[in-house]
Amino acid sequence: MGDKLLCSNSFLPREFMGEDWSPAEEDDRANELSHFDIDAITLVKCLAKNEQYPTGEACLKLLKETPYVRLVGRAFLACWENQRVLPEN
To answer: N or C end: fewer C-beta atoms under 10 angstroms in the chain?
Structure first.
């Protein structure tokens, strides 16, 4: 088991990306997390070989079809604040 990161701080997208940014949609399961194991994160590809990357609503639809919890801004902030524990790869 790897490092567990606390993800209780609020994430404000406008502080990182500008005033006009806000989350389009969040996974309610991720909002219930108080912490997560950094080694449990898996980067998942939802595309078939040679398939074009979708954008906007098409991308969100593909992500929702996976069984995985989609981490939200609080998890991003926990990683940002604890970059030293992030694996190189």
So the answer is: C
User: 78 near 10, Cβ under 8 Å?
Assistant: no
Task: Tell me how far apart the alpha carbons of residues 78 and 31 are, in angstroms, rounded to a whole number.
Answer: 13
pLDDT score of 62: 81
Give me the residue spans of the domains in the chain: 4-85
Burial 17-35 (b: 16+ CB within 10 A, else e): eeeeeeeeeeeeebeebee
DSSP 60: H
Quote the pTM value.
0.71
Within its chain, how far is the Cα of 10 from the centroid?
14
